[in-house]
UniProtKB/TrEMBL annotation:
GO cellular component: nucleus
Alphabetically ordered keywords of this record: Nucleus
Subcellular location(s) of the protein: Nucleus
Protein name: BTB domain-containing protein
Main subcellular localisation: nucleus
One BP term from GO: regulation of transcription by RNA polymerase II
Tagged with keyword Nucleus: yes
InterPro entries for this protein: BTB/POZ_dom, Dros_DevTransReg, SKP1/BTB/POZ_sf
PANTHER family from the UniProt entry: BTB DOMAIN TRANSCRIPTION FACTOR, BTB-PROTEIN-VII, ISOFORM F-RELATED
BTB domain ranges (all copies): 31-96
SMART domains: BTB
Region feature (Disordered): 125-168
Comp. bias regions, Low complexity: 125-139, 158-168
């Protein structure tokens, strides 16, 4: 006779993960890597960077250090900050003027969801308001979307949403 199995599921698991990691980032709690660009630095978590960037995953795997300091030449600090925010939140606000530099930085750092994104698959939605709120789930961030169009069966499994503050 087979033993009955029970599925225990926490419906808010993913939102809680995002919220907790964002909270840890904002409070700089349990950080284990320092990223530097243009003489400025920010703290982060290797596990989050590795999960979202094959560049960081490879770097941290090949160079195991307790708290590495990664100096990123040829990357602007503001673009780096946007990339880290994207990796933690899954979305960010950027101006149309920032977009090319952000996408170039995403390619350099091999950021999942932004890197290797064909230009023709990007559609920009414009918004008048600009939010200074750092929260990942603010209403203004939900309104401003850059969408990677899904090509294929329409299942949507390959589509990723990206957010940006678009002016115009």
């Amino acid at each position: 006779m087979a033993v009955q199995q029970y599925c225990l599921r926490w419906n808010n698991h993913q939102p809680n993960f995002i919220s907790m990691f964002t909270s840890l980032l904002n409070s700089e709690s349990l950080v284990d890597v320092t990223l530097a660009a243009e003489g400025k630095h920010l703290q982060a978590h290797k596990v989050v960077l590795s999960a979202c960037s094959s560049y960081f995953q490879s770097l941290f795997t090949l160079n195991p250090c307790q708290h590495p300091i990664v100096i990123l030449k040829d990357i602007k600090y503001t673009d780096l900050k946007v990339m880290v925010d994207f990796m933690y939140c899954g979305e960010v606000n950027v101006s149309q003027e920032q977009l090319p530099a952000i996408l170039k930085t995403a390619e350099t750092l091999k950021v999942k969801g932004l890197a290797e994104m064909p230009e023709h698959n990007i559609s920009l939605s414009k918004s008048v308001s600009v939010s200074s709120d750092k929260s990942c789930d603010s209403p203004s961030m939900r309104r401003k979307r850059l969408r990677k169009s899904s090509t294929g069966s329409g299942s949507g499994s390959g589509s990723t949403e990206h957010t940006g503050t678009m002016t115009g």
